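Re: weekly structure request thread

Next one in the queue (173 aa):
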Amino acid sequence: MSYLKSNDLFEHLNPEGLYQKVPHPIVIADHLMTPDNIGAMIRLADNIGATEVCFLGKEEEHKMGKIRRSAASSRDNIRWYFTEENDLRKIVPEHKKIVAIETADNATCIYETPLPEDVAFVVGSERHGLSEELLSQCDMVVFIPVPGPTRSLNVSHAASVALFEWQRQMLQK
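Done, posted below.
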């Protein structure tokens, strides 16, 4: 067995065929503080084929050079932007379901919850998670069970788990 470049492998697998069956997701992140996490979210959103990634908060608070380096070529492949808007329905089209990835009272396990086809995923900040205000605007809340001693995930890792679980569910339809 030898190494195969991912572009060569995926060219034959056609993973983008998923979007002939379901709409592309949107990714929203609430007040991320770390440029590396912002860049990782841009790259992840590009990897999954999202239409855009929206960062709630002020753009000038972040170092754009570090964000661009972390995002790599994805920074030019996908629409990403900052906004101070806190009304998710002004960001997310009405027909999309808003799914929070968060530990909350009403959250269900992501692996046991059927995820909507037409979706916008929302993740919270590294320190405080999602605010009550944003959680109340979501159609559903899912959590990721973490079996190890550190019971929280990095925000980009949590988004990765959720987005690829969504993809897995959509491919099984």
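Residues 22-171 form a domain with the Alpha/beta knot fold (CATH 3.40.1280.10). The chain has one domain: 22-171.
Next request, please.
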